[in-house]
Specification:
about 425 residues, alpha/beta, TIM Barrel, 2 domains, two-stranded antiparallel sheet
């Protein structure tokens, strides 16, 4: 039985019980959310997860970190260091987006060392296999694409991003209304080119029931990819993006009816004032299915700082409907990220997620902040470091310039407002 099957039959599961304990929510509440599709636990059978998570409304906002090789840089040891950096920084999930080297071997190593939910993108494997057979992307077959999904599911990933919603009709909207940046999803771009070259419908859409059955075999969560997500502010909310979103809603209902958990993926680059409407549209179109967003990025002009841009958009997105934030690193749009980029990306997204948890009224979310405030009032530096979202950075920053009086920082010295002798009388 899948988790959906179990909950609909009035049963629980050890995966649900362990996750509920970590989430600090009643098992009954989590079972009800899984049964109606408003929450998912990305945890395939056979994967010995030590840090599972649940994604959905009323739960804390989760953060994902993307890892993976490229054709220009393939170093499995570096990827394992990035995995450790992501987990140490507090990521709730990681995705292996490798496109260079032995993809199955890399995925195996990452899975063996991954204590959190692991996701992947089979379309990259389909493109990789085509190239290594000496064929261009347009020579891929429907069987190649479905075989890639099968391999990833069999390899035991907890969730797969599958680009099932890009259709000939959606691509036609792109032709009639060209974008500045076109199709920026790698998987979406492969499919768009294949569909244009062969004048055929997306096989992952046409044979979606087969995709569902593959995921059902291991209780792998479907993450329905937004192949037409906007890659520029000017492209946000266009006909092609919205066409795909409503298609994803239809596909999600089919998957849930067959007992497979589903998340919906979303933008992308979105102007700040449009974010709330896009989040609410997804919730309506997809029956409140968990929403997984990249950023969103609220400006296009900050390369090197896109982790901050994504955190700004992520906070608003998560207070208006998003449940899962895919991190953005300082290396976004520039190069393959390294371990430090991964760390900074996770921390930025965790700050956004926590700010949203407070705004969303998640029980006990603000207790953390109140504890930090009390430690500050008491000048309890060790407690402040313990509570900091990035303790090492906080400690290193304080150590750079010490005040002449050890219990103060070097910003205010004897003018410190918290040390005002008369303050306690106010």
């Amino acid at each position: 039985m899948t988790l959906i099957d179990a909950t609909r039959a009035g049963k629980s599961d050890q995966r649900i019980e362990k996750t509920a304990a970590i989430e600090k929510v009643p098992v009954e509440k989590l079972c009800a959310m899984i049964a109606d599709g408003t929450a998912v636990i990305p945890w395939a059978t056979g994967h010995d997860l030590t840090l599972p998570c649940a994604v959905g409304d009323g739960l804390t906002v989760k953060v994902n970190a993307n890892l993976g090789t490229s054709p220009d840089k393939c170093d499995i040891e570096m990827e394992l260091r990035k995995l450790k950096a992501a987990v140490d920084a507090g990521a709730h999930a990681v995705m292996d987006l490798s496109t260079g080297g032995d993809l199955r071997g890399i995925r195996k190593h990452v899975r063996e060392n991954c204590p959190v939910s692991l996701g992947s993108v089979p379309m990259y494997e389909a493109g990789y296999m085509a190239i290594h057979r000496g064929n261009p992307f347009k020579k891929m077959t429907a069987e190649d694409m479905l075989e890639a999904v099968r391999l990833h599911v069999e390899d035991g990933v907890d969730f797969v991003t599958v680009h099932c919603g890009i259709t000939l009709q959606a691509v036609e909207h792109l032709r009639n209304n060209p974008r500045i940046c076109g199709v920026v999803s790698r998987g979406g771009s492969l499919l768009a080119r294949w569909m244009a070259a062969n004048n055929q419908q997306n096989p992952l859409y046409e044979r979606f029931d087969e995709v569902i059955d593959m995921c059902r075999a291991t209780d792998c969560t479907l993450s329905l990819g937004d192949a037409l997500r906007p890659g520029a502010l000017a492209d946000a909310g266009d006909r092609a993006q919205i066409e795909e979103l409503y298609t994803l809603g239809d596909l999600a209902r089919r998957a849930k009816a067959k007992g497979v958990q589903v998340m919906i993926e979303g933008p992308g680059h979105v102007p700040f004032h449009q974010i709330a409407a896009q989040m609410q549209m997804e919730k309506r179109a997809c029956d409140n299915a968990p929403f997984y967003v990249l950023g969103p990025l609220v400006t296009d002009v900050a390369p090197g700082y896109d982790h901050l841009v994504g955190a700004i958009g992520g906070t608003l997105a998560a207070t208006t409907g998003a449940n899962f934030l895919c991190y953005v690193t300082p290396a976004e749009h520039l190069r393959l990220p390294d371990e430090q980029d991964v760390h900074e990306g996770v921390i930025a997204s965790r700050i956004a997620a926590h700010a949203a948890d407070i705004a969303n009224g998640i029980p006990n979310a603000r207790d953390w902040d109140d504890a930090m405030s009390r430690a500050r009032k008491a000048f309890d530096w060790e407690k402040m470091f313990e509570l900091a979202i990035d303790p090492k950075k906080a400690q290193a920053s304080r150590a750079m310039v010490q005040s002449s009086e050890n219990d103060r920082c070097s910003m205010c010295g004897e003018f410190c407002a918290l040390r005002d002798e008369d303050k306690d009388q106010l």
